[in-house]
Amino acid sequence: VQLVESGGGLVQPGGSLRLSCAASGFTLSSAAMSWYRQAPGKEREVVATISRFGGTITYVDSVKGRFTISRDNVKNTVYLQMNNLKPEDTAVYFCNAVPPLRSWGQGTQVTVSS
After folding, report:
1. How far apart (Å, rounded) are the C-alpha atoms in residues 31 and 40?
2. What is residue 108's predicted lDDT score, i.e. its pLDDT?
3. How far lies 91's CA from each of 24, 31, 47, 104, in Å?
4. For residues 73 and 64, what is the distance between their CA atoms, to the nearest angstrom?
5. CA dist 75 to 21, 22, 24, 78, 105, Å?
6. Under a CB-based contact definition with an 8 Å cutoff, are residues 54 and 71 in contact?
7. According to the model, what pLDDT value does residue 1 have?
8. Which stretches of the chain drop beneath a pLDDT of 70?
9. According to the model, what pLDDT value does residue 70 have?
């Protein structure tokens, strides 16, 4: 099983990024998926979760109205569209199943700074 996150980078406050998570060795449609993030000195937190076929979506309060999670089970990929980014969104972002698989990807760094 391999999860590969991409799409991070440095962006100014108010900017946007679109993260992707490509899964291999694992059938994406078999599980709900979440995006997680971990900021320096903080615990990893769940940012957004999408059910197996996208019918149920939840977000942590701090990103509601700004982030959108989606998935393409044919492409075995999960996405996170992040708009109106804030400095407090700075973190390494990971994706994983719900509950998490044993293996985690390397994550993708998102830095929001002017």
Report:
1. 28
2. 98
3. 24, 24, 11, 16
4. 24
5. 10, 8, 10, 9, 18
6. yes
7. 87
8. none
9. 98
Q: What does each C-alpha distance from 20 to 41, 42, 76, 103, 108 come to in angstroms?
A: 24, 23, 10, 17, 9
CA atoms within 13 A on the CB side of 114: 3
Q: Which residues of 46-80 are buried (b: 16+ CB within 10 A; e: fewer)?
A: ebbbbeeeeeeeebeeebeeebbbebebeebbbbb
- Taking only the tens place, the pLDDT of each residue in 78-109 is 999 999 999 999 999 999 999 999 989 999 99
∠20-70-103 over CA atoms, to 5°? 50
Task: Name the residue type at position 13.
Answer: P
Task: Give the pLDDT of residue 55.
Answer: 93
Whose tokens are 């991409």? That residue is 6
